[in-house]
Write a structure and sequence with these properties.
Family: Belongs to the protein kinase superfamily. Ser/Thr protein kinase family. CDPK subfamily.
Shape: globular
Strand order of the largest sheet: 1-2-3-4-6-5
Structural class: alpha+beta
Strand content: 5-15%
Keywords: ATP-binding, Kinase, Nucleotide-binding, Serine/threonine-protein kinase, Transferase
CATH architecture of the largest domain: Orthogonal Bundle
Pfam families: EF-hand_7, Pkinase
Number of domains: 4
Largest sheet: 6 strands, antiparallel
Oligomer: single chain
Number of helices: 20
Helix content: 40-55%
Protein name: Calcium-dependent protein kinase
CATH topology of the largest domain: Transferase(Phosphotransferase), domain 1
GO molecular function: ATP binding; calcium ion binding; protein serine/threonine kinase activity
CATH class of the largest domain: Mainly Alpha
Length: about 475
Amino acid sequence: MGEKRIDKYVFNTKNKVGEGSYATVYKGLNEKTGEKVAIKMLSKSVINADDYLREGLIQEIKIMQKLKSPNIVQLFDVMETQNNYYIVQEFCDGGDFDELLKKRKILSEKEAIKFLIDILNGFTQLIKNGITHRDLKPANILIDKATFKLADFGFAKCVDNFKKDMMSSMVGTPLYMSPQILDHKRYNSKTDIWSIGFIFYEALFGKTPWTARSPAELLKNIKNQPLKFPIDKIPVSQETQDLIIGCLQSDENKRFSWEDIYKHPAISQHFSEFLKSNSKLEDKAQYLINDIRLMIIKEKLDITKLFAELDMSKDKALDLNELGRFLTRVDKDIQREEIEYIFNKFDEDGSNSIEFEEFQKWLEDNSIHVHQNQSNREQQKKQSILTKKNIVERANQVIEKLKLAINKYNIQLIDLFKKFDKSADLKLDIKEMGMMLKKIESNITEDETQTVFDYFDINKDGEITFQEFQTSLQECIIRKK
């Protein structure tokens, strides 16, 4: 009774090992190999009815397929039946880190460092693939034969520009969120560094560095209460304290970078190969900078003409392949990994494309004198103004289409608002608002979405309350009356 078979995998619905809002996880078996597996079952009717859930599932699968590491839960298979989706992954026999902390209360410093090394080893693969986890918490760290493994990538964000990409959706578990997410501010991949420091502190001292009853109170406490270490009760080395302090800087600019963490004396001896690889990429970048400088001087290149020549798609921006062709012209032996590394250096705003201003700025920042005549400069300025004007016009059209749809179908504003308020906090973040707008205009761009969001976000606090939503659409209400 209760036994199910999905291709070569079998499981019994009585062998449940976990359950969430949208999925149930069962212990199963690969009949061909005899290997134990974890089978995550998701209802197709639930997932397909919600764009947010479907996007999260697709994202999780794509990311897990990329990642190969002994410290990341491995994906084996993805299948579907008439009623369900199934994600088959590595079975971890030791439960999760949250259960371990509840049972053990605290870990010794040596044990906590071992845990941290495992987690950071997993993160080397996320960094290499340009992935931010965004929902790192003890329950999303699984244990298999005393090895800690990263899991649950449903909220992860995959970006080509790992270090600089700015994200603004309110996701994750509030207690472990960085102050930027709690404050509805834009943030980058350092949000994971905050979470790592938070969990590491909890493992050492049996409590989190700050506590609160709500996200707002947590943010207030982080801002107003200094970080303290109860070393009178639980002695911890100065090195370890220093590492935690670097991770738990509320100001992202002051918070440790990934390189700072991997170079930290508390753990650096375990990551010599990773550091060596990064150092080689930086050396290669500097070598190419010098070659680009010599090329521009020797050929007396006009920077505007050079950019236009490289922009094969004529979309006023360079993608990875277009920049790659230029770098290959400079060094025919350049590797793909080196091109990606240098692309990230150009891509100042993390948009996954290099606009002319970024291209010019990077060359000038590296003391490469660029030639550009006055008419070209004026043309670039006019083009930038025109682009911004087009974005505003398109955004206004989307707002009008939204208003028309509300009137045409007699939609109640509160019902519309709640449908896309996935976090059920009576606020819309930019991702939730973006999903609403895609129903109106499927090909809406990120810039247009941001412009519409800013229109509704009357007090400019990074979120749209129902009152703001209602006020912005007031003329719809008047028409209905």
